[in-house]
Amino acid sequence: MLRFLKILILIVCGISNILSESSPETIEVSYPLVKPYGYGTLSGWYGDKISEYLLDHPIKSQHEQMNRNYVKSGEEWAFFHFPEGEELPDLGDWWDWDIELKNIKDVVEDIGSDLGKFETHFIAGTEVVDPLNWEKTDDPQRFEITNIDLKNEIKAKYSNGSALNFTEAEWNGFGITEIYSFSYVNIEGNYFKPISPGNNRINDEVGNMIIRDSIDNYYPPYLKAEGCGGICYYYMTKNNRKRSYLVLNLGFWNGVNDHILDISSEEEKLQEARMAVYSSIVHEYNHVVQMQSIDPSVPVRWNGEENGYGERSPNAISRWWLESFAASLPEALGYHPPHTLNAVRESINDITSDSSLSEDEFVDRMIYTEPYGYLTKFHWGSLAAAYMAKLTSWKYVLIDFYFDFQRVASDVEARNEHQNTIDLVPELDRIFQHNFGKTEEEFLKNLFRIVRSGELTFEMLFPEGRLDFDGDSVDDGGADEFPFDASESIDTDKDGIGNNADEDDDGDGYFDIAEAVAGGDSLDALDLAVTKDYFAGLGFSKTSEVAAARTSGQNDVTASPSVYDLHTSTELAEATAAARTIVNVSARVDLGESEIVTPGFVVLGEQKKLLIRAVGPKLADLGVGSPLPNPTMTVYKSRWDGNPPDVVATIDDWKADNDNAAEIVSAMSSAGAFPLEPTETFQGRPFMTDDTSSAAALVTLDVGVYTVQVSSADEGVGEVLVEVYEITD
C-alpha cells in the first residue's frame, strides 16, 4: 500500500509559497496531446475533453518537471537493493533465488515499459537475522517472543549496560527454533530485536546513495527496509528529478506468507509465490507513476486524505482510489488472479443487505482515516472504480485519470497548519466535477444511493460477467495481452506489437502474408521448413534481407534524389493503393483422390470485396483435358487465440448455394474473369460449357489472414483452378 509515514510531516512543511498566484502559468497546447517519449505504452497524456472545472492547458511548472522526471532511453532508472547470498532465506528447492531475482528484475523492466520509467529505489529487506546479536528498537515488530529465559537475559544485559550478545551455547539453551527480522521481545515497554546484517547492509547502501544524490544530502534516519512497506519517501536529486523509495515484500516469508509456504504442491506454491511478489511490484510501482503524475515536484502540492487536524483540505488526495486503482492494474496486466468482480459483488451485498450502513459512513470509510481506520472496507473502492469506468473507461480510470491533476487550477485557499500560513492549492473535487458533474463526496453518496435502490446492479457494471478493460470481449487478467487496446489481444512473438498490426507475428523473419502463401505457420517461429523451401524454390530472400535491400534503396534515393523520378506523397499514396489491388491471384492444381488444396491470402489495410472461385468443368473450354467435375470450397478466417478458424463461406455449386448469383456474374465481368455460364465468345474464343458445378462466392472480408480449402464434392479427381479477384465498385 501507499504509505507516506513521516514523510508528510517533512514535505508538507515546505508546501507554502510553491503556488502564490491564483492563475498559474500554463503550457499552450492543442488537444489531444501526444504523450512525450518515456511515459510507457499504456500511459495517456491529458484528456481531450475541455472542462469548465480544469485548466484548458497543463500548469507550466508541473508539466516541465514531469518531463524532466521521466527517464530517457539508455538512462539508468531502477536501482536494486536486494539481499544477497546468505542474507536470503532458504525456502527450499522449489524457490531458486538466482532465477527468481532475475524474474523480478524482468517484471520491473516490463512494468516500467508499460507505465513509464521513473527513477526508483527497489528495496527488499530480509527475514534472516543473527540471533546472537540484539539491539533496542523504538517500535514493536510483528511477532513477539515471550520466552522468559531470553527476556530475563536481555533485561539483565540491558540493565547492566552490557552488549546484547549471546554465545551460541547460550542461544541454543533458550530452545527457540524460529526467529526472523520481525521478531521482538517486550521488556517493560522497551523493545528489542535481533540484528539483521543483511538489512543493515541494504539500509547503509541506500542511505549512502540518497546522501550522495539528493539535492540536500539528507537521508531520513527512520527509513529502514525492514520497517517500511510500499512507497515511503521521495526526494529531489541533484539532476533535478523526483526519485522514489519503494520497498517490496521479497524476503519476509515466514509468518507473513505462511499460506503460500503451506501449499503442498511445489508447482502451485511456486506460481502463488511469484504472483504474490509480481502483483506487489506492479501495485507499488503504480503508486510511483501515480505520484509522478499527480505530484512531479518535491515538496508536494497534494496532501494526505486529512490535514492531521480532522478537517479535509481542498488539496487532499483520497487513498481509496489510489489503492483501488493500483490493486486493479496488476489484474489487468495479468500479474494478479481475478479479484475485482468478487470485490464488486461483496460491496454491492454490503450496501443492499446491511440496513445499518448509511451513505455518510460509506463516504467516511472511503475518504477519511478517522474514525474507522485506514481503508477498512478496501473492496468498496473496486465498486467505485467500476462505476467510474462505466461512466468513462477503464483506461481512463487506471491510467489517464492522474494526468488531469496537472490541469487543476490552484486558486483555493487552505491553511498550512505546520507553518500557520494560508496557501493556494489545487482542488481534487474539480477532477470529479470534470468527469462526473459531482464533487467526490457527492459522487460516492450517489453511488451508494443507486446501489441501495437497485438502480445500479452487478449485471449493469459487468453485462458479460467478466472483466474486460477495453471491451474487446477477450477476458483480461492474462488472456488479453493488450488490456487497454480493443484492436489487439495477442502478441505471439512478444515484441510489443499486437498480431493484428504486426506483419511478422511469430518473429521468424518471414512476413505473415509470405507464410500464408507458402502454406507455412505464421504463429510458429519453429515451423519454417515449408516456408523456407517454398521461397528457396522461387529464389526469394528472408524478410530481414528484403528490409536491408529496402533500406539500401532508400539511402540511394536520399543521397542522389536528382537521379530518380520522384513523386508527391499524394501520388505515392495513390500508387500504393493501386499496387495493393488484387487483379487476379490464382493457383491451378491437379487433385488426386481425397486430396485437398489450401491456398491463402491476406487482407490488409481495410475491408475488401473479393470474388473467390474454385473452377472445374469450365476449364474444358480452356483446353484442360481432365477438369475436376464438382469442386467445393470453404473460406476460412484465421484466429489468433488458439481456437479453430472461423468459417466465412462454404460453397459447392455457385448458382444453387448463393442468393446473389446475378451479382456474382456481374463481378466476374467487371474483374475480367472468364464466365461460368455459356458464352459464344470470350477473348476471341467460345466458352459454351454451362458450368453450374464450380464454386464461387462474392464476399466482403475484414482485415485478416484467410485460406480457401478446395476439394471434390463427390470424390472425383482432376484439375481445379482456385482464383481470388478484388472487386472495386
What is the number of helices?
Answer: 21
Portion in helices:
25-40%
Radius of gyration: 34 Å
Query: Which structural class is indicated by helix and strand composition?
Result: alpha+beta
For this entry, what is the oligomeric state of its chains? Answer: single chain
Strand content: 15-25%
Q: Taking strands numbered 1, 2, ... along the chain, how are they ordered across the largest sheet?
A: 1-2-8-7
Arithmetic mean pLDDT: 82
Structural domain tally: 5
Mass-distribution shape:
elongated
Distance between the termini: 60 Å
Low-confidence stretches: 1-22
- Biggest sheet character: 4 strands, mixed
Blueprint of the fold:
Layout: H1 7-11, H2 60-69, E1 78-81, H3 97-115, E2 120-126, E3 130-137, E4 143-144, H4 148-159, H5 168-174, E5 183-187, E6 190-195, H6 197-213, E7 230-236, E8 242-251, H7 258-261, H8 266-294, H9 319-332, H10 340-353, H11 359-367, H12 380-391, H13 394-398, E9 412-416, E10 421-425, H14 429-436, H15 440-453, H16 458-461, H17 512-518, H18 529-538, H19 543-559, H20 569-579, E11 585-591, E12 600-603, E13 608-615, E14 631-637, E15 646-651, H21 661-671, E16 679-682, E17 685-687, E18 695-701, E19 704-712, E20 718-726
Parallel strand pairs: 1-2, 2-8, 4-5
Antiparallel strand pairs: 3-6, 5-6, 7-8, 9-10, 11-20, 12-19, 13-18, 13-20, 14-15, 14-19, 16-17
Helix pairs in contact: 3-8, 8-9, 9-12, 10-12, 11-15
Would you give an account of this structure?
With 729 residues, the chain is α+β, with helices and mostly antiparallel strands. Helix 8 (266-294) packs across helix 9 (319-332), helix 10 packs across helix 12 (380-391) and helix 11 crosses helix 15 (440-453). The chain has a four-stranded mixed β-sheet, sandwiched between helices. It has a four-stranded mixed β-sheet with strand order 3-6-5-4, with helices on both faces. Strands 11-20-13-18 form a four-stranded antiparallel β-sheet, with helices on one face. The model is unreliable at 1-22 (pLDDT under 50). It has five domains: 31-59 and 325-461, no CATH class; 78-126 and 197-284, no CATH class; 130-195, no CATH class; 502-550, no CATH class; 583-726, Sandwich (Jelly Rolls).
